[in-house]
């Protein structure tokens, strides 16, 4: 009976990657040179299970490599060796290398072993050169040549099957090493009534004649060390062993018959295992689409659904009664409760998709360490607000732009220690990642205390590249904004870290694709801050329903500043056909939604309509609508999926009555209205209003 | 008798691999055919939500069991005078691969007509339209009995990013 091991591959890979992540973060914790036994143990354990797993699945390239790594770790753990920075570096490199190997194997490609072999050579050099504590080489070379007979006693504990181990495999593997004689003891097997099919009552004694070293045998039983008593001993030369065994062998044959029942026991467990694996596999078949959810979140969902069921029962009971005044009141109460339950449920379901941002942040310590070493800069990384939660989809898409921004800060922002000392700063630069919630947005700040953006240089570069005209006057913020233009890089030299100029525009584009924005603020000599603003989730928003002619649109509540009736005396016409409302000290351009969306039949007189003042990208505009309708939470549906991108519309949703309604995209609308020149920060009206003022 | 024969004949034809089935519909007295495998369902006309600044032939979007599906008036798409929608007006919901994306769209047509099996060979018989705008939308012309059926190339008809649409 054989199991198709490939069904476990995904689980193995997932676990191995997790193990590698754990190793990496623990290694980074080790940095200061103070070695904590528990930390090293954690690293060792991770390495050990990767080695074991890969051995089981026949990924020898991985297991061989992990073996040397493990040996070194073992020696460090036992205190035979001091942990040095050299080791940490080497171990970190091997984590990378293992990750590459595993990725290749996962993609069913043949892994490139060059790097692994080189690293392995280094490990072996370390182990061989400094250590006399591994005697295995010298003593076992001789052992290799001669045939030896080993006596192996294998007495599994009853719970062996439950750990997913199958003695049959081990025995057949053992058989592959050489000639094997097997003796099974079944005296512990109870009566059939007491027999648990998932417990192991058998034990074995093997006589193995082989030219392999003892280590090879130990390896087979490596996985069950804790779940069985195993003694391996050499029983003299081959002749002696063979002679004494013959009689036993006879006995065995007769003894072995009743053993037939053993396969049924493992068969049951195996089936279970396969089933488990299958269910797990079906969940894993979309690896990147899976999510790990805390059990408390699931529990609270179950509670919610329970309440929902109770409410439903209550409502259906009311439905069966005769309609009187009191039932109507009860019905209304029931409906209110239903609304309450639904909203709770919705919030909880959404929360499932939320993960703490530490998932993204956790990759930065390593990145900063590697890059700062490469650049000979001293950097301290500060992480703040790691527990801030955001949507998984957003998180996946934000990590690449963030990596890019952090690299930029390290490469361009921070100065080398000498410069910093000369500038009177701490030679150790600081990069701070900060995440927090603000309104319905998550804000991620990437701050450095480096030299700041060189406005003059950027301006010059932009003129050279033809992005702006030499005579154009731009505020320093506007100049800084230019770094987000395609093909822009001020780095004097192109390094492999950054400087090719294909960065910031991609960063901005990626963030905008998530309905987010990125801004930079910078002070010369003091540092720069990149601020990324993202919606918490892409799936749901609070909307204000508005009416334009006979159409219903949704304006995201989050962007609405206020809604008001227009005081016609405060409206002035600027330019050809642009109305501006003076609202307190601001001039608000009035965008006629019906005009922009090309709808007929809307109210055109300003004093009969309503103005919804919205804010986007620091600009306020007023949207002219016929009427304000309800406010409600809407689920965002893609209009693009079956149609195409529509300017000024960010998506669609389905209203309570089943009709489709479109969601207004404020920044898209501003562009569509022609209020803003491409690439410019200011609205046209702001210039006008300056004139008016 | 001949009907029976005809049916048998059709059944036999269907078994052959180079046979494709086409759903046909009527529009301005002409019969058009769509690959039946692209058809998801046929619905009556219902009110749509207008999409701002869309081409005139895009009537709007409907909610099809939770997905947003754009509705396209094929008459307007082909530049035929539109008629007012009545109880017989139907929407054929199709699922088409357009530029490597599977899209679900609804087509407003006058009425659904029939289903024919047409051999690949016959269907390939495309007359040369000499670059006429609408020519590229035609996958083939076939004669079924006395009638002529225009087989449509849906991927082209519904590709809203094509040049023709951009110009219109």
Which tags fit this structure?
heterodimer, A: 693 residues, alpha+beta, Alpha-Beta Plaits, 5 domains, five-stranded mixed sheet, 22 helices, 22 strands, 22% strand, B: 168 residues, OB fold (Dihydrolipoamide Acetyltransferase, E2P), 5 helices
Topology:
The complex is a heterodimer of chains A (693) and B (168).
Chain A: H1 9-30, H2 37-56, H3 60-77, H4 85-106, H5 114-130, H6 136-145, E1 148-156, H7 167-177, E2 178-185, E3 203-210, H8 214-220, E4 228-234, H9 238-256, H10 264-284, H11 295-320, H12 325-352, E5 354-356, H13 358-361, H14 364-375, E6 379-384, E7 389-391, H15 392-413, H16 417-422, E8 429-438, E9 441-448, H17 455-464, H18 476-481, H19 504-513, E10 517-523, E11 527-535, E12 540-548, E13 551-556, E14 560-565, E15 571-574, E16 578-583, E17 586-592, H20 593-596, E18 610-616, E19 619-625, E20 627-635, E21 649-654, E22 660-664, H21 666-672, H22 684-692
Parallel strand pairs in A: 6-8, 13-22, 17-19
Antiparallel strand pairs in A: 1-3, 1-4, 2-3, 5-7, 8-9, 9-11, 10-11, 12-13, 12-20, 14-18, 15-16, 16-17, 18-19, 21-22
Helix pairs in contact in A: 1-2, 1-4, 2-3, 3-4, 3-5, 4-5, 11-12, 14-15, 15-19
Chain B: H1 2-15, E1 19-27, E2 30-35, E3 39-44, E4 58-64, E5 67-73, H2 74-77, E6 90-98, E7 101-109, E8 111-119, H3 120-123, E9 138-144, E10 147-152, H4 154-157, H5 163-167
Parallel strand pairs in B: 2-10, 5-7
Antiparallel strand pairs in B: 1-2, 1-8, 3-6, 4-5, 6-7, 9-10
If you had to describe this structure to a student in words, what would you say it looks like?
The complex is a heterodimer of chains A (693) and B (168). The termini of chain A are far apart. Chain A is built from 22 helices and 22 strands. The model of chain A is unreliable at 131-144 and 237-288 (pLDDT under 50). With 693 residues, chain A is an alpha+beta fold. Chain A has a six-stranded mixed sheet. Chain B is α+β, with helices and mostly antiparallel strands and 168 residues long. Helix content of chain B is 18%, strand content 45%. Chain B contains five helices and ten strands. Chain B has helices spanning 2-15, 74-77, 120-123, 154-157, 163-167; strands at 19-27, 30-35, 39-44, 58-64, 67-73, 90-98, 101-109, 111-119, 138-144, 147-152. Chain B has a five-stranded mixed sheet with strand order 8-1-2-10-9. Chain B is globular and about 50 Å long. The interface between A and B is medium-sized, with 24 and 23 residues.
């Amino acid at each position: 009976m054989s199991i198709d091991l490939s069904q476990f591959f995904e689980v193995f890979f997932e676990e191995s990657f997790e193990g590698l992540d754990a190793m990496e973060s623990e290694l980074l914790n080790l940095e200061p040179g103070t070695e904590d036994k528990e930390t090293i143990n954690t690293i060792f354990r991770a390495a050990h299970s990767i080695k074991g797993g890969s051995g089981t699945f026949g990924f020898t390239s991985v297991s061989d490599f992990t073996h040397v790594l493990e040996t070194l770790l073992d020696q460090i753990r036992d205190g035979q060796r001091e942990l040095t920075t050299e080791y940490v570096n080497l171990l970190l490199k091997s984590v990378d290398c293992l990750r590459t190997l595993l990725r290749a194997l996962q993609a069913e490609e043949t892994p490139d072993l060059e790097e692994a072999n080189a690293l392995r050579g280094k490990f072996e050099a370390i182990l061989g050169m400094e250590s006399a504590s591994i005697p295995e080489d010298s003593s076992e070379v001789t052992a290799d040549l001669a045939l030896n007979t080993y006596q192996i006693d294998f007495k599994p504990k009853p719970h062996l099957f439950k750990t997913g181990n199958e003695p049959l495999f081990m025995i057949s593997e053992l058989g592959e090493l050489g000639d094997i004689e097997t003796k099974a003891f079944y005296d512990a097997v109870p009566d059939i009534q007491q027999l648990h099919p998932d417990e192991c009552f058998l034990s074995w004694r093997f006589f193995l004649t082989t030219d392999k070293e003892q280590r090879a045998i130990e390896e087979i039983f490596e996985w069950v060390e804790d779940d069985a008593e195993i003694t391996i001993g050499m029983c003299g030369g081959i002749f002696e062993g063979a002679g004494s065994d013959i009689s036993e062998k006879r006995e065995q044959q007769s003894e072995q018959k009743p053993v037939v029942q053993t396969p049924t026991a493992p068969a049951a467990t195996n089936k279970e295992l396969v089933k488990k694996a299958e269910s797990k596999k079906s969940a894993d078949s979309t690896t990147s689409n899976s999510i790990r959810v805390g059990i408390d979140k699931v529990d609270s969902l179950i509670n919610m659904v329970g309440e929902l069921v109770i409410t439903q029962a209550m409502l259906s009971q009311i439905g069966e009664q005769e309609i009187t005044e009191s039932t109507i009141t009860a019905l209304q109460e029931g409906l209110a409760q239903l609304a309450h339950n639904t909203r709770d449920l919705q919030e909880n379901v959404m929360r499932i998709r939320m993960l703490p941002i530490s998932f993204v942040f956790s990759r930065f310590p390593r990145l900063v360490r590697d890059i700062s070493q490469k650049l000979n800069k001293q950097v301290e990384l500060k992480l703040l607000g790691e527990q801030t939660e955001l949507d998984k989809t957003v998180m996946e898409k934000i990590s690449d732009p963030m990596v890019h921004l952090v690299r930029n800060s390290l490469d361009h922002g921070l100065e080398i220690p000498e410069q910093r000392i000369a500038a009177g700063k701490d030679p150790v630069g600081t990069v701070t990642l900060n995440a927090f919630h603000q309104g319905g947005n998550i804000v991620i700040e990437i701050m450095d205390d480096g030299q700041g953006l060189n406005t003059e240089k950027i301006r010059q570069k932009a003129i050279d590249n033809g992005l702006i005209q030499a005579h154009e006057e731009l505020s320093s913020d506007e100049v800084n904004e230019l770094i987000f233009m395609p093909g822009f890089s001020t780095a004097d030299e192109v390094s492999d870290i950054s400087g090719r100029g294909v960065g910031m525009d991609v960063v901005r584009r990626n963030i905008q694709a998530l309905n987010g924005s990125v801004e930079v603020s910078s002070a010369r000599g003091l540092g720069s801050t990149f601020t990324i603003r993202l919606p918490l989730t892409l799936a749901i928003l609070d909307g204000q329903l508005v009416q334009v002619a006979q159409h219903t649109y949704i304006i995201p509540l989050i962007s609405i500043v206020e809604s008001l009736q227009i005081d016609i005396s405060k409206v002035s016409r600027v330019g050809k056909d642009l109305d501006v409302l003076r609202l307190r000290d601001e001039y608000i351009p009035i965008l006629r939604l019906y005009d922009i969306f090309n709808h007929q039949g809307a109210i055109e007189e300003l004093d009969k309509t309503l103005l919804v003042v919205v804010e986007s990208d620091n600009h306020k505009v007023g949207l002219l609508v016929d009427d304000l309708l309800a406010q409600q939470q809407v689920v965002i549906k893609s209009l693009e999926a079956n149609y195409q991108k529509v300017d000024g519309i960010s998506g669609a949703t389905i209203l309570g009555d089943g009709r489709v309604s479109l969601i207004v995209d404020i920044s898209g609308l501003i562009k569509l209205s022609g209020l803003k020149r491409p690439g410019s920060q200011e609205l046209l009206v702001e210039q006008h209003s300056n004139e008016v003022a | 008798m001949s009907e029976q024969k005809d049916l048998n004949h059709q059944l036999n034809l269907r078994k052959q691999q180079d046979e494709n089935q086409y759903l046909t519909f009527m529009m301005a007295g002409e019969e058009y055919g769509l690959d039946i495998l692209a058809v998801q369902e046929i619905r009556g006309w219902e009110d749509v939500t207008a999409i701002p600044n869309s081409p005139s032939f895009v009537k709007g979007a409907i909610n099809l069991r939770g997905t947003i599906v754009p509705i396209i008036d094929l008459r307007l798409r082909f530049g035929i005078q539109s008629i007012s929608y009545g109880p017989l007006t139907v929407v054929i919901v199709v699922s088409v691969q357009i530029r490597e994306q599977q899209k679900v769209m609804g087509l407003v047509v006058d009425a659904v007509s029939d289903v024919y099996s047409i051999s690949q060979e016959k269907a390939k018989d495309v007359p040369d339209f000499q670059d006429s705008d609408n020519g590229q939308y035609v996958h083939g012309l076939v004669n079924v009995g006395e009638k002529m059926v225009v087989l449509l190339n849906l991927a082209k008809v519904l590709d809203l990013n094509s040049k023709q649409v951009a110009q219109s």
